[in-house]
Amino acid sequence: MIQATNLNKSFGTLKAVNQVNLNIKEGEIFGLLGPNGAGKSTTINLISSLLKADSGSISLNGIDLNTHPILAKNSIGIVPQEISLYDNFSAYDNLLFFGKLYKVDKTTLKQRIDEILILIGLENRKNDLIKTYSGGMKRRINIAAALLHKPKILLMDEPTVGVDPQSRNRIFEVVETLNKQGLTIIYTTHYMEEVERLCNRIAIMDTGKIIAQGTLKELQEQSKTTEKVALTFSAISKEQFVAFKKAFAFEIQQIENTLSINCNINKDLSTILAYCTTNNIEVNDIKVLKANLEAIFLDLTNKQLRD
Ligand code: ADP
Ligand code: MG
Description:
- By secondary structure, this protein is α/β, with parallel strands linked by helices.
- The chain contains 11 helices and 14 strands.
- The protein has helices at 40-47, 69-75, 91-101, 106-120, 135-145, 165-180, 192-198, 216-222, 238-247, 265-278, 293-301, and strands spanning 2-11, 14-24, 29-33, 55-60, 63-64, 76-79, 153-157, 184-189, 201-206, 209-214, 228-233, 252-255, 258-262, 283-289.
- It has a 6-stranded mixed sheet with strand order 6-7-8-3-9-10, sandwiched between helices. The protein has a 4-stranded antiparallel sheet with strand order 2-1-4-5, with helices on one face. Strands 12-13-11-14 form a 4-stranded antiparallel sheet, covered by helices on one side.
- Helix 3 crosses helix 4 (106-120), helix 4 (106-120) runs antiparallel to helix 5 (135-145) and helix 5 (135-145) packs parallel to helix 6.
- The protein is elongated.
- Bound molecules: adenosine-5'-diphosphate and magnesium ion.
- Adenosine-5'-diphosphate binds at residues 11, 14, 16, 34, 36-42.
């Protein structure tokens, strides 16, 4: 349904999007996961034609966006990363304003606004000014604004940043409901739990590139990640690290005072801890990492997903 081929976009010398290829199928919730600065928003803005690519092409249902930019506007709804609402207008008036921008006729628009307000759970606050809303409520209205013209594709750029847990859950439910109604959704986030919960397929992005793509299961299979234990020490010297590596046959990654060790947790953890005690390496924290997206990301990039 959405096909991006060899997309490139630079800002000066910075390659924000570097040879990106995406193939998103109709009816999917597709997750674009990556840390801040990975290039997620730039990718979304290219797909929605807000930005023009330096090279590469995007097609929607086989139609090239370069030659048919109006099509993008009509079939895509965009929930931008930054909330863009008028503080001194009520939620209802904001939605009327955005609906008119999309040229939805007044009767249809009013019906549509009522429907969407119920969907996002804010029908009883519709006449209150946006400036009285919490961050999470503003987010929900921002989502509503993207839905007024009944798009087939919804692009959501980090829709849960800065929202309270209640709004966050509501947003998840809204995403799931919209998807059940047939919307194809691209969902960007740096929270791996969100893509694990919501998305059929996932692309992992870092420094402008898609570094892996597939279902969670496929990513787990592609990745060499199995189980891992992350041990954090008060301090570990170079010599201690070298000796530690020698003592075990495990694959070990070091990030500051934390070692991520590929091992069989049931079998090996007690041996590892006994080694630490014997060698006076003080353990401050033990984390068991399943082969989740965070572990896969660490594997692929040598970076933690979270700052
Ligand atoms: P993400 O959404 O994953 O956090 P962005 O797509 O916003 O990442 O940004 C990717 C990179 O491009 C970052 O290094 C960012 O600073 C840079 N960038 C984004 N937009 C601009 C712009 N308009 N001008 C200059 N640099 C930009
Ligand atoms: Mg962004």
